[in-house]
Design goal:
about 100 residues, alpha+beta, 5-stranded antiparallel β-sheet
């Protein structure tokens, strides 16, 4: 199982996991309790219940680089282009915008 912590402006917003059944994203309870909590994406509104999908959620998939930058990442880290979660973990620790994704070790 692969696990990633998802941060919004350096605050832990939730956890993204991948297992044999697909992907799961759950907001952190402490984050949901904040008065100024914002969703990581309009497609993933704030809620207690986890989101589940057989494929990586489009919002997170959209954070992965494309084109020549994807080629460099793929070659540098020897990651299969179909392994979207590994690419997300390798490339999105410090991506453009408010969201960052870091491996949960």
């Amino acid at each position: 199982m692969k696990r990633a912590k998802v941060y919004y402006d350096e605050r832990l917003a939730g956890v993204l996991t991948e297992d044999d059944n697909g992907f799961n994203f759950r907001y952190d309870n402490d984050y949901l309790a904040l008065s100024d909590a914002l969703p990581v994406s309009l497609t993933l509104p704030l809620r207690q219940e986890p989101y589940m999908s057989e494929v990586l959620f489009p919002f997170f998939d959209g954070l992965i680089p494309e084109g020549w930058l994807l080629d460099i990442a793929q070659q540098s880290w020897k990651i299969d282009v179909r392994d979207r979660m590994s690419l997300l973990l390798a490339c999105c620790r410090d991506c453009i915008g408010n969201i960052s994704v870091r491996e949960d070790v």
